[in-house]
DNA sequence: GAACTTTTGCCGGTTACCGGAGGAACGCGC
DNA sequence: GCGCGTTCCTCCGGTAACCGGCAAAAGTTC
């Protein structure tokens, strides 16, 4: 397996993946190899069924060049996003576009065997031929040792510590599997689908959901940290937080004062004490106040709810200001249920960060809401998979030297090494 | 210039640089290329004068292999570390070992022309033939746009904003020049000279001097941030800091309560109010209290000084705890004058971090003093230079294809591109 | 429809890498 | 000190891969 070949192969495929409809001359210029090499690689990729011609491009005076695109429908990858009470399952094509989605109610405390068995059952229902799966990406709400695919001491996933999530799926589907922290996948998904995020080589993705976490991109690559728990900012000490006890047992945690659970709790308190007639109605109707109810009330003009969200934003912003000075990202992306609900949180975050961070660090900084929608976690998971599938080392095995012109046996190549 | 050749060339040179006395068979195994290629690259490097034979290694039964080493004396690089009141200037060989050092008193507020002219005069005195300089590394106490070598809005360097430091040296010495933030160079120097730091792929170097700053390593590479100011934690908001005004104009900055200036200020207050007879003596003798006097007093058993340093350590540790949770480094290295003085600060930092950070992030975390001595900044600067000099792209230009067996003209090759 | 431009396949030339063969250097045992 | 086995190292032929000229095919423009 000559190293150069797989390198140029991956370079060509990457360029086609990144620029649908790219032409051969453009590839020559972009990839920087000679014409014959590019042409040979394209032929290889076409005979493997990974690339097809997609019409002809605009002519610049002579013959119009043919446009190439990834044959995204050549295979499917599975993304699984595990949450505390819900699990998202998606099937995507090789371009990372979701073509099927399912959402299941689970209890993560039921343990990995029950939850992952449930996930397998759902995938098997959507995708009867399990041999069609090219790869699997799993996001979990806790730290993961990425190299081995083992969760490490996840605080909100009792019974999952050290469970071989990766090996289980790799064996069951005979397909390579990668497991990562959910927030890392959000960051990755943002970078892969939002050009502005890709352009900012250093990025922080902040998720404000029930908990609070961050995903870090350094120089275009995920920074996972030494134990795989980088970005775990839910339990750092926040400002003005006297006496609030967090689910982790400590007091003063950011999550305990600005997370979704805290917002719901304070919303309920407002509803009960007459601080918000709107939320009092909601409480009466459903018997509970969720974070979504607070954002809903804020949208409908409730001053108490707006103040509550603004306070949460300020608290997150205060911590984020320190992190921005420290990390100096070019872009901060804010996602998660709470942030998705409106501008009240975002505006407060912006104000805090711009006020408290080093001026130079905020000179070109932008703080934007995530462009990903509901399926954000799945998007990241499937992009992780296709990125890894099309990495040079793995590609070399699919398209072995001097491969026959026919379709290489894509369904079985993964077997020799479940997930390296 | 074939890409492969320069790649294998750099790989061989890197291996020799990293393992002095490596043998040809070891290189074959380590670099992973065939015998003939390795032998050819060694011949090339020898004819260029970069590598020489250094005796023969132990025989394992047959002919003993010859050992290779970098001919570090083949050239010299210059390191310049600019501080607020002092400037360190060093000459190092190609292995990054300092062979000359000078320290000059300056005032950085005199502006770049005066300071850099002074630096050039000192270098010219030590090194009469300026053509002998292979490269120059400059550390400055403020943010730098690394790609262009321009300081950007450095708070404590009036008049330096946008001054072409790199181009000035590159022109004057006709040698490639790199400029970086001083703290980044400390981190780099630590990684290059301390095997434990190199092993921890994610590292934070915290410098506590007059100011406070950090250098970040992500996956073995410097994380400089989007504006080159990553690690600038001197002006984040610290805990328990009501009303203290910082030199930056804000209040509550970490630097204003735990930096060297703050320690000196509080030491003086202790001396004046009778809180420390020892420091009162010092004050009477010299008319001032510096941070070094406080650490000195702490060493000699002064409880007030010890408490003062412990408080500073706790404050740094509190911020660091957030950063450790966020960044999840494998190692935190503490350096700078204040930290170098003793264990009082370090112990307090350790206690704060271990108490407040996420348990998983501290499970394997070590917090250690820097192994670099006085010349820490210079060490980083010269290592930056040799790293860049021996990077594949630059190496390819030195040893052009089919170079004559004689010495290539190393003194002039840099001219075509001062510092890319 | 003709001239021109551009794409694209083909092919020889060149470069670089690999590993076998044999000479050279070394340690060991007698 | 001398042969023998072992290992290092160099030379050299074979092979893989890349480059770019050439010409045919496929368009565009006039």
From TrEMBL, chains A, B:
- What name is this protein filed under? ROK family transcriptional regulator
Q: Which domain of life is it from?
A: Bacteria
Q: Which Pfam families match?
A: ROK
**Which SUPFAM superfamilies does the entry mention?**
Actin-like ATPase domain (SSF53067), Winged helix' DNA-binding domain (SSF46785)
Regarding protein family, the annotation reads: Belongs to the ROK (NagC/XylR) family.
Q: Which Gene3D superfamilies match?
A: 3.30.420.40, Winged helix-like DNA-binding domain superfamily/Winged helix DNA-binding domain
């Amino acid at each position: 397996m000559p190293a150069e070949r797989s390198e140029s192969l991956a370079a060509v495929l990457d360029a086609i993946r990144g620029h649908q409809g790219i032409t051969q001359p453009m590839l020559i210029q972009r990839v920087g190899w000679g014409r014959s090499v590019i042409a040979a690689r394209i032929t290889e990729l076409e005979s493997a069924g990974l690339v097809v011609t997609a019409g002809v491009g605009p002519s610049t005076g002579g013959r119009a060049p043919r446009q190439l695109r990834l044959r995204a429908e050549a295979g499917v990858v599975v993304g699984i996003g595990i949450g505390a009470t819900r699990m998202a399952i998606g099937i995507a094509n090789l371009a990372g576009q979701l073509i099927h989605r399912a959402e299941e109610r689970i209890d993560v405390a039921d343990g990995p065997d029950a939850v992952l068995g449930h996930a397998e059952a759902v995938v098997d229902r959507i995708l009867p031929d399990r041999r069609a799966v090219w790869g699997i990406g799993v996001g979990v709400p806790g730290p993961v040792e990425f190299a081995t695919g083992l969760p490490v001491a996840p605080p909100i996933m009792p019974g999952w510590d050290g469970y071989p999530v990766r090996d289980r799926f790799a064996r069951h589907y005979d397909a390579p599997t990668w497991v990562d922290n959910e927030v890392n996948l959000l960051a990755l998904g943002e970078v892969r689908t939002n050009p502005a995020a890709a352009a900012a080589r250093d990025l922080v993705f902040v998720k404000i959901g029930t908990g609070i976490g961050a995903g870090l991109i350094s120089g275009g690559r995920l920074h996972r940290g030494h134990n795989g728990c980088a970005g775990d900012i839910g339990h750092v000490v926040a400002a003005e937080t006297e006496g609030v006890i967090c689910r982790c047992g400590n007091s003063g945690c950011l999550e305990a004062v600005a997370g979704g659970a805290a917002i719901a709790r304070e919303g309920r308190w407002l509803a009960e004490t007459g601080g918000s007639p709107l939320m009092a109605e909601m409480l009466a109707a459903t018997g509970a106040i969720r974070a979504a109810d607070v954002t809903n009330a804020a949208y409908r003009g409730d001053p108490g709810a707006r103040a509550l969200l603004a306070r949460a934003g300020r608290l997150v912003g205060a911590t984020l200001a320190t992190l921005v000075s420290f990390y100096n990202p070019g872009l901060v992306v804010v996602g998660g249920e709470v942030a998705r609900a409106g501008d009240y949180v975002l505006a407060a975050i912006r104000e805090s960060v711009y006020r408290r961070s080093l001026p130079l660090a905020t000179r070109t900084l932008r703080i934007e809401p995530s462009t990903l929608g509901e399926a954000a976690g799945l998007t990241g998971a499937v992009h992780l998979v296709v990125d890894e599938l099309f990495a040079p080392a793995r590609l070399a095995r699919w398209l072995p030297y001097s491969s026959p012109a026919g379709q290489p046996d894509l369904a079985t190549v993964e077997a020799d090494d479940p997930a390296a």
